[in-house]
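Re-run with default settings, no changes from the original entry. Doing this only to confirm the output is reproducible before filing.
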Amino acid sequence: MPRSVTQNCVLGDFMKKMSIIGIAALLICLLLAPLVALTHVGLTPAWAAWQTKPQPIEWYHKPQNVQADEARWDSFARDQLTHLSSGLMMTIAKKLGITEVYGKSITKGSTPGGKVKATVIDIPVANNPLADEGSPSIAVNPVDPRELYAILEDTSDAFGCSVYYSNNAGATWALQGALPPSPNGFGADVCYHPSARWSPDGLMAYLAYGSVDWATHGSDIVVTQALPAAVGGPGYGAGVNQVFFAGAAGVDLWDAPWVDVHQVDLGQANWVYVTATYFDFTTGQNWIAFDVSNDQALTWFGGGVAALPLSSLAPFPFPVQWSRPIGGISADVLVCWFNAEIDGWNNGPWNAGFFDIRCRQGVFNGLLWWPEVTAANNVNYELPFWLGPGGAYHWWEHSEGPSLAISPDGRAHIVFTRDPTVSRVDSECGNVVYVRSNGPFPFFYFTTPAVPVTVGNYGVMAQGFPTIAVQLQRPIAPTPLGYRLFLFYIDHRFSPSTIANIYYDVYERHSDNGGVSWTAPARITDVSSISELISIGGYTDSSAAPLRGRAWVIWTDRGDKWSILDLEDDVWADYL
């Protein structure tokens, strides 16, 4: 039964914590109750759990019919393998003995050798020659920019992810202790799709990652506190082993988690948001789920079990994926994701389709949500699974997911990748595009779909893996709007025309007028990387600190390789 605005606005004891702005927003919400009926698209999350905040840990129980559940899990995971994040795809493929996807071998391993990367600018974060490292995320302390955390997938780690810390403005990086797996597991957990963010007051950083366990055929999303030096860091805080989105063994799968905060509002410093994709093996549907903490990730309003579903129910082959949350001004929060649209997801190298970037806007820090909206509608076209020409290079499809930023005026900024051509086999298989919201806070972010503006393209070469960050006002060289937008992305423009997309670099553009115009593309990497046969991870990431004016970007690097067949990758970073 649809919930009315009045029903959703009754938040019990939680309102005692609301600011004057929040109370005013509640009054507006009550006035709108007769006009707008909000629903949660037919889903029934545990609302009582959201209001009472129970204990966050829910331990696994193994189903009675273990063999039937495990067989169903294996079958469904195999069917949806190409719709998963890179780390989870590789992990499940290895477990199920899958060695080929769309005609290409996906067996990876360490290949020592290559060349020495002769760099004078780029900074190595993780470059173990015997390990495959990728899918990195970075967070800089906005109060003390000398401090940074980075988290990444790492085959040399028993759990599959590693954490690095720097206290000298990124000049050097130190490997930290092992990340905790989900306490729901039994010692066979594998980490995937990690992300990192720092609170706006600089007093806590957060690490989110998926944890899949073969002993239970289950998966969870884990959030861990990463301590700054001001409170005893580096190291992990009391929030270690914090689990939510606890999966039901053998019947579901969690993927693509992401963590974020209110980067532009100190008044919301203790709030943390996480989203992930939920695959329900019993119904054949999936959706984007959300959870929120107001105490630095110690407890969660979903109670560690029942996360709030945000997106419409998506039956296969029309899935949703690659969600990102972000806090805005006051108690505003925005979540956006990829939607495959009614023509279905790209299910092979010959099927070009349309897609949307969908969003929902939350108030009261995500305890009340406006209906789902379309930020970018019928975008053409979906990316091919493998980077072209002819699918010759690494996994490319997941570059179509959004990266978000919210500026101090409350305007939302989104970048993602589309294929400008209908061909599935050409080299021009990716352009970076940008959309921004219709108006700044307190208006709705997207009342009508925005028209994507191309911000990354070059001839017949591909661009992708974009990431966007907002840098608050700097005391030197202030910008007209009080902030600067930084855009970073992968660009293959240095590849010869006879071997298109064989090399890639990281490029940067920035805007001082809220995304109306952008500077000319500037090369960040000083040594090009050679493309890979299988995967260079799932994303790049960026983080910007005010005061000293440094904006960081982190990526999967192959500047020490001679061949696409050398499957060992590293993680490097740089700053402006």
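Residues 464 and 490 are 5 Å apart (CA to CA). The first strand starts at residue 100 and ends at 101.
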